[in-house]
Write a structure and sequence with these properties.
CATH topology of the largest domain: 434 Repressor (Amino-terminal Domain)
Distance between the termini: 30 Å
CATH superfamily of the largest domain: lambda repressor-like DNA-binding domains
Number of helices: 9
Number of domains: 2
Helix content: 55-70%
Order of helices and strands: HHHHHHHHH
Radius of gyration: 17 Å
Strand content: under 5%
Amino acid sequence: MSFNVRLKEYRKRAKLTQEEIAKKLGIKRSTYAKYETGENQPDYKMLEKLADFFEVTTDDLLGRDNKKHDKEPYNSLKEINDFVRELGIDSVGFFNIDDWKNLDKEDVEEIKKHFEWVAHKAKTRKK
């Protein structure tokens, strides 16, 4: 996923408008909008500000994978916990850790899709 698409996703997850983020970063909305469309790229200092604002690393924003991860085993528990936190769920006590330890990446992606569907369904129901 490209930088501009990732940036837009982080903004949507934060439930903020381009204008709100631009104000918090001290830039024009049009400047921020151009980052999301890919028309312009932020300089290094702005990239750091964006990463700090969204509480992610610059590598996350840029979509860079740390090659170190290729040598480490896939951590399904971390992946699920991170995703659940992104959805705003603080407690994942309903997980029996022993049942979730040996999931592969495809299993976790399927769980993510299900959570997204459930969250979407809940939002729709609340409207």
